[in-house]
Amino acid sequence: MRGIFLFVMIAGMLFFGCNRNGRHLQDGAVDYTRKADSVLDLMTLEEKAGQLVLFSSNGDITGPIMDDAYEQYVKEASCGNIFNAHSASYNRRLQEIAVNQTRMGIPLLFGYDVIHGYKTIFPISLGEAATWDTAMIRKASRIAAVEATAAGVNWTFAPMVDLSVDPRWGRVSESAGEDPYLGSAIARVRVQGFQGDNLEEHNTLLACVKHFAAYGAPKAGRDYHTVDMSDRLLRDVYLPPYKAAVDAGVASVMTSFNELNGVPVTASKYLMTDILREEWGFEGFIVTDYTTIMELMPHGVAGTEQQAVELAMDAGVNMDLQSGFYHDHLVSMVEKGIIPEQQVDDRVREVLKAKFKLGLFEDPFRYTDTAREANEIYTEEHLAYAREVARHSLVLLKNENEVLPLEKGTDLALIGPHGDTRHDLLGSWYAAGDWTRITNLEEAIGRANGPGSVHYEKGCDFDGEDRSGFAAALSAARSADAVLMVMGERGHWSGEAASRTSIELPLIQKELIREVASQGKPVVLVLLNGRPLALEDEIGLVDGMLEAWFPGSAGAGAVADVLFGAHNPSGKLTMTFPRVTGQIPIHYNMKNTGRPVDPANPDYKFTSRYLDTPNDPLFPFGFGLSYTTFDYSDLRLSSGQIGMKDSLEITVRVSNTGDRAGHEVVQLYIRDLVGSVTRPVKELKGFRKIQLDSGEGRDVTFTLHAGDLSFYRKDMTFGPEPGDFKVFVGGDSETVLEEQVTLQQ
What is the pTM of this model? Predict the structure, then answer.
């Protein structure tokens, strides 16, 4: 116990009274900087460097495994943080080493990729976003934090808030989609869900917003590739969700793998210092993504490991994940005068402050309670909520002749490779999720169908050329009253390092769908995938189409709930679905060009269009059907003109004109008709998810402030410009009512 006693005895004397500048704190305030400095003053250079080092455990579903060398670094205080560390007993053993066997006894941070759940896995983030329910997403993140902290984790590498308009990029599965307004709203609530109201509570943990910045715009949709864009596009579109997370108090930020305009992000002082710290006032710490300091060398901006360290430190990076360059070189570079020790102190201070905010100095073992781990993980309550989120995440894309919901007791043929999968239901980045304990679609649909029969035939694999299962699948289809086809991607086809050149279904699946559809039976296609798919061929073959994403631990039951009408689908797309891959990038908030297509003369050649397919998507941003119908009417504005300090009330009547209760996401868009720089054809500026009974109507009102019309103007100042604006309200980005308003100087 030598380390912790020495720390408490000496540092404890400095915790109270005046801070370094002699100022007294206000009652109830906590000066984490003073606390951190009281520890920093006692540390050797080697111990300081250790606080900036993060090495990773190995392991698999059975649990993490610590490398012997890294464990020795913990004992030497040359590694102050561990990644991929989870389970109360594993983390407690490592914390005991750090606290009891080092001179200072400084506790470790334990980080883990808790992206959409820890043990109870919620739908992938793109699916969660499709709920358009920020309160629901916040609660899902809160449950993830409760479970993760019960398993020893005090730092999650989430939320990922990268926007993307390119579904070839596999990491769209972790994103909230393509829109900065919605992405910002979700970023805020996910930070709040993870961190709670007080980080010293035992069931909160540090959030880490990633990947800063513009990681979602790689050339060719290829992961880790270069990013090149104007500063205006960066600031208008890509930065807002990161800024929202910082404003919500996110404790840490992760650098991205990409370069931005010729500078690898981990070496970008413009991003890390100028924007993040000086413009936005970020006070947390910055960690690299896995080995990105090392990658400054193949990027070609550092010729040696020492140069890479110097670039990262100068940019403002606090912590080195896994490259080992800070571990190997930081001390000697300070001793040689290459890096000032004051710079090291500044980086260490921010890490120590985070550990104080978590209450780790007061109780280093607060996250290693095996009783909590036994009682607060994978509970019935958590699974029930995961099922509820999954229900709301499902998007009904087609429902010809009301083929859905299915009648219970129907003689069903269930066909497709997803019928008996479990692992794939969890998608990518499923943390400690255990697919062996979950229900698959065949089981869930069989239970929901009641006395009816469900005849399952796989038909084909996800890809390949084996058609030997076609005959049995076609026989099952001919014998059934209706057919459910469960197709899509494998779970590992999206996520990190999982880019695809084509987002169509593989040929073998397309052929099976075509042949089953030719049997003349009602066919419903259920899709499990981690990205938007190009479904132009399939949409004309099937009667119903349900986008289920990768729905998580309780997802199979949620899919069955929607198919049989126990839940009325309400999900809406947060990324545009193209007709074909060649339309990518495609998104609702595009610019108009000088030669837009004329609706009155769509075949005129010299416009911005394709020769072989329309410009418009198969399914637009915000789209999603219901088992009921909603009517929009009586759009009215509080005024036709507003001033720069005024606000505008926008009211629309929404009515449920069907025979079922249902949820509808009412969406508000604007268009700036003339600006000093070109503006998008639509921009989301508000949304409201409401529930209406059959026959019920309700007025929905949005308040739009003049400041909400701001953008980076021609001179790169931020603010609104006077002029005419269109206001749109509807159930998706294309099906809208519109009015016009003038913003006056």
Answer: 0.96
